[in-house]
Automatic annotation (TrEMBL):
Its cofactor is Zn(2+). Residues 8-196 form the Class II aldolase/adducin N-terminal domain. Keywords: Amino-acid biosynthesis, Lyase, Metal-binding, Methionine biosynthesis, Zinc. It catalyses: 5-(methylsulfanyl)-D-ribulose 1-phosphate = 5-methylsulfanyl-2,3-dioxopentyl phosphate + H2O. This is Methylthioribulose-1-phosphate dehydratase. Binds 1 zinc ion per subunit. Signal peptide: none annotated.
């Protein structure tokens, strides 16, 4: 059986994300790397749970410019930043879930620390619940270029793996391919739900 193409895998991932309710009201954006220079990014303003192959736009990774007249995601600069920072990154998924939106506001520190969860091992290279996983949290901004620059500066000084949270906005995560990006998204969302519940129960 022939293996589906990365874009087909990404479209299936978008439908899965939509079914999960993780991209409500046109929120979220998704992309896949085509090669060293170009990625395919979801078109801005569309319902991401019902995207088709035709809803993805070729974008130059170096300049973040669309190679056609159509408007790619408002957050294009964050996707291209990830592809420039991490040559091994093959797919980027951005979602607006309740957990990522609320936890990123409750967490006042520079990172959401996850510790003691077996499902930390769902993330590539993680082998024990005894380690502490730090998912950085950045203040939300409508200035995507400035936000990308802030995150690039962070990545120059600290390890940046799996994803980052935008405070009161959502999660952007990535993987070597669509399958790994999906696993990282699902694993992080599970961990966020656990952490949100833990904080609620420990306050009770
Ligand atoms: C109502 S969604 C606000 C924009 C956003 O945060 C998002 O993730 C979707 O923007 P896009 O331009 O990619 O549709
Ligand atoms: Zn968003």
């Amino acid at each position: 059986m022939s293996q589906s193409l990365p874009l087909d895998q990404l479209v299936a991932a978008c439908h899965w994300i939509g079914e999960k309710g993780w991209a409500p009201a046109t929120g979220g954006n998704m992309s896949v790397r085509r090669d060293e220079h170009v990625c395919l990014l979801s078109e801005s303003g569309k319902d991401k749970g019902t995207l088709t192959r035709d809803d993805f736009i070729e974008v130059d990774i170096a300049t973040s410019q669309s190679l056609s007249g159509r408007k790619p995601s408002a957050e294009t600069g964050l996707h291209t930043m990830i592809y420039r920072l991490f040559p091994e990154a093959g797919a980027v998924l951005h979602t607006h879930t309740v957990n990522s939106t609320v936890l990123s506001r409750v967490e006042q520190g520079a990172a959401l620390l996850l510790h003691g969860y077996e499902m930390q091992k769902s993330l590539s290279g993680q082998h024990t619940h005894l380690d502490t996983l730090a998912i950085p949290v950045f203040d939300n901004s409508q200035d995507i270029a400035a936000l990308a620059s802030e995150i690039e500066d962070y990545a120059a000084r600290f390890p940046l793996r799996y994803g980052f949270l935008l405070r009161g906005h959502g999660l952007t995560c990535w993987g070597r391919d669509v399958s790994e990006a999906r696993r990282h998204l699902e694993g992080l969302e599970f961990l966020f739900e656990c952490e949100r519940q833990r904080r609620l129960l420990e306050k009770a």
